[in-house]
Amino acid sequence: MSDLKRVLICANPDLNYIDGSSIWAQTIALAITATGEAEVEFLTRSTPARDELYGPLKNSDRLTILDGSDRKYWQGRGFARITPEMMGELAIRLDQAEAYDVIIVRGLEIATQLLDAPDVLAKCWIYLTDIPQSVAEYTHYQRLIMQSVAQGCQRLLCQTEGFKALWLSLVPDLDTAKVCLYTPVIPDLPTSLPPIDERPQRAIYAGKFKGDWMTLAMAEAWPTIHGELPSSELLMIGDKIHDEPDQPNYAACMLHALKHTQGLVWLGAQPRDAVQQQLHQARVGLSWRHESMNNTVEYSTKILEYGGAGCAAILNRNSLHEQLLGHDYPLFANSSEEFCHQLMRALNEPQVAQQAADVLKQLAERHTFTTRVDEIHQWLAEAPKAPKPQAKTKVLVAGHDLKFFTLLQKKLEATGQFEFLIDQWQGHNKHDEAQSRALLEKADVIFCEWCLGNLKWYSHHKKPHQRLVARFHAQETRVRYMHEANWDAIDHISFVSEHTRRFALEIFQGFPTAKTSVIPNYLDDTKFTPKKKTGEARFTLGIVGVAPKSKRLDRAIDLLEALLEEDSRYCLRIKGKHPLDYGWLLKRDDELIFYREVFERINTSPTLRHKVIFDPPGDDVNDWFTMVGFILSPSDHESFHMAIGEGILTGAKPVIWDWDGAAVLWGREHIVDNLNKAAEIVRFGVIKNQNPPKHMAMDKVKDCWISKFIK
């Protein structure tokens, strides 16, 4: 085994676009490689298409570029650019395939994704700047996320002392030994630089073009400067022009200014070496930002690059810059007038520009590439080698509807114990038998999601050494497949609730109780989170899914009607597919009659017709819950009713009719047995954040399933 450390760079910048963050990602990859102690893999968000930043990576020894958008990583699906969440997911899978010793992560969304894989997070060096920079801006939930990231990772890399202080405030019991400064990095300084008075009257900007970066304002101010100093020139470098939602024409105006401003030369995107050469011939670099950024604890790499090239720089006066450069730094600017004044001084008064350049150079000397390589060398030496991965249990998942299993699968994969094979059925008893047989040959465990035709088929075809486990929901009691399965071949069936197990064992008499258990559905507290409720939420009832008729939409209407007699502000929001859009429902006369009567009741009532709102289905339920104060479960029966748990996670108060098992699952305090009690909960109930049942937490549910898969 090689003594070199295996390192993965997993950062949210896309190196096909040039800005400070993408240069950061390139630089840390090159610095790690330069230690001579590591083999580096660099995970990209999109296919490398430009060599300005990718060129040095391609030419670097012991560095491999992994195209994260490659179809081979996504079961043949193509993506022009993967999301940060997908990067986190892919990093977990890559680590499981061949473990890394260190994973460098930049970006909160990636880091949050890695919370699902604590073993992976434990080897991560986390660097975050895309976070609120004041403790007061964090919600309780955001603090929990930050605490989990900080306590779970191997190192926290902080750009400044301000970020370090922020982390220590958010996580008071944090081990300070894992908190390291990783300030911006610039190329090693040349041995000699031309003094300011030997340089042309040239100003330079290199980076992104964005509203808060004041790039349009700087370009629009240039004609005035150029008019006063006809020999002056402004170079602007870069091609990443942002859209600004509050300035609809921003991108077009910025592009026009770059192309048509007299005395302004736009060079587009340039390799970093070419940018350095241009800086060596400029008097002043521009790093003026909008006033809203004055409280930042993050500073721009550009001011270091300007200083390292012997340039002066115009930048905001704020506490960070005063700390770095001193209160008397001569080229601070905090308004358009000050910017123009200071730019004129920098171009026309060499002694002022030289004074600023000398201060910046002293700062830059502390941030050179060689200095950073030495630090990383020590950190790598302290990072433990990853243990050799153990053989994984191959789990074959079979079923027609796997939506309840998707997140659970990710959690189980993240343990590093399992590899999943998917046999996607087309219906209760419809599948590609040849594919099922081929997958069966590879499996150690077969997991049937729903006990339908999939369980019947696999129970008659499994090998003696294979373990067959299934999950029973509810509808299985109404079909024949469980009766026709080979019960002797089934190792275990889990039910989502005790009352479902009891009812099923009454129907399938003779199936051994010892082969059963109850494992509830998990509640995804990463997807469903408390958010600020709208003002109308206090008067809004919500229900998710109202088909079939046993969901009892009529009871929800009864409750709404009773509440409207006292207060006209009440309404009912129904989330999900419209009942009459289900093909199976249209074929059942009793279902069709029920819904036609309910809709006629709504549409003919002046009181109800504008108070029942159908919201379309979609993966935006967490946002939908911001409008909902009370989540209803008026059903005749349910096996579990996931929407109740999701509502609890978001701060909605449950109102549950007393269907069999409801009190055991969700607590007696939320149960009603008549309309008056339901109305009373809504009238007097307090909407607040509530704790869901602990046995439905993802980690608890995950551990239960591990015990069923491995015996």
Automatic annotation (TrEMBL):
Sample GO molecular function, one term: glycosyltransferase activity
Q: Which UniProt keywords apply?
A: Glycosyltransferase, Transferase
The UniProt record lists the keyword Transferase: yes
Q: Which residues form the Spore protein YkvP/CgeB glycosyl transferase-like domain?
A: 271-377
Q: Does the keyword Glycosyltransferase apply?
A: yes
Q: Give the EC class as a word.
A: transferase
The record's listing under Pfam families reads:
Glyco_trans_1_2
According to its UniProt record, the EC number is: 2.4.-.-
Q: What is this protein called?
A: Glycosyltransferase
**Species in which this protein is naturally found:** Chromohalobacter sarecensis
